[in-house]
Amino acid sequence: MTTEIKVPVLPESVADATIATWHVKAGDAVTRDQNLVEIETDKVVLEVVAPADGVISEILHEEGATVLGEQLIAHLSAGAAAAAPAAKAAPAAAAPAADAPAQDIKVPVLPESVADANIATWHVKVGEPVTRDQNLVDIETDKVVLEVVAPADGALVSISAEEGATVTAEEVIAQFVAGASAGAAPAAAEANAAEETDALSPSVRRLLAEKGIDASAVKGTGKGGRITKEDVEKHLKGGSAPVPAAKAEVSVPAVPAGERSEKRVPMTRLRKTIANRLLEAKNSTAMLTTFNEVNMKPIMDLRKQYQESFEKRHGIRLGFMSFYVKAVTEALKRYPEVNASIDGDDIVYHNYFDISIAVSTPRGLVTPVLKDTDTLGMAGIEGGIKSLALKGRDGKLSLDELQGGNFTITNGGVFGSLLSTPIINPPQSAILGMHKIQDRPMAVNGKVEILPMMYLALSYDHRIIDGKESVGFLVTVKEMLEDPTRLLLDV
């Protein structure tokens, strides 16, 4: 008999969640109420326990995967508790057989324009048992993060390129021995040293790294002393007791913890690429910015009226970005210069509409491309944007999803920006900045009304786009957003 293991019902305001930590793997024997997996939302970490004794027969979603409420994530074969002693005894078996041949773990073939890469994160340690297709290491290029998976059940016997190392295509970075999944446990000392870090959820690890905090300095209040995001935030606010400095050995007052400290970390490859491209845009284009403002009340009323039926029919919420993309696509049709680019002494006019969407990720700003937007409906646009945003957050964007794009939309309003001058994304010729929607007093037919207003900013390359075209483009976007029926009637 097989039992389905599902994501719990999520809190009302939470749309999705992330698989944080699997405490078991396929083939493991488990007992009733044993914690199988931790699922992380924006607010809480949920534990999923075994409904009965049995064996985990299949795991459908690995750590880092985005899941929905009540989504199936694993199968449990009940009534197989008899297998538990064998399963539990297995780790005591030591390492792989001495005569097992070692395999090279290599860097994948890199994209054509990429010369080298960096080892970003090793997800396993030497001696730690792994299963076939389990992610061993993330390798970061200028554009994407590549995953290297285990070729079979087994264990790493050596790692020759540590995190931060620069590597080239097909370079050997580790040695792997197959058939070691039942053992090869790391030495006790090594396991104890890494135990605290391994117990942290991905978001907590990321927050500790961003703030430069040693996990040992934070007091965990979660289950089993686990450190939660709230614990880290409390520590940052000074809620945790400061680690006593050797006060008795100095005659001057100790400097309060956290003051006048510095942290020096090397730029990631993505951050270097962003820096170089922004500098290139400033130095190689004749960039100007023109502004306008738009009354968002018509769209807000439309969303309020149709949100429920739209979500029920298409399975996705109706956001603002689909309106922005639709309005921009129509404006690009009317002003082909804005959809063009300069190549040497030529102007290349594109007869297709691929729009880059600026997405903020833990690794930095990326601009994945939503392709052929003129053929997409509102639901298709919303689904495409959500997919790109989730992949960007998880570092799963492919090179193809990051290449191309004729025009960029960036929305600083989600962070509270009221007005900005966005920088062009070369070789594109223009970028549209959306901003915070804020109630402001406006004159309407000789009377003052309070309306939800948003500033628009179009930065453009004056070498190819003249003032007339830039202003006309922005006015078209404004008109489309203030009267969304124009998008349907093409007027």
UniProtKB/TrEMBL annotation:
Involved pathway(s): Amino-acid degradation; L-lysine degradation via saccharopine pathway; glutaryl-CoA from L-lysine: step 6/6
Function of the molecule: E2 component of the 2-oxoglutarate dehydrogenase (OGDH) complex which catalyzes the second step in the conversion of 2-oxoglutarate to succinyl-CoA and CO(2).
Domain Peripheral subunit-binding (PSBD): start-end pairs: 199-236
Keywords: Acyltransferase, Lipoyl, Transferase, Tricarboxylic acid cycle
Gene (UniProt): odhB
TM annotation in the entry: none
Protein name in the entry: Dihydrolipoyllysine-residue succinyltransferase component of 2-oxoglutarate dehydrogenase complex
One GO BP: tricarboxylic acid cycle
EC number assigned by the record: 2.3.1.61
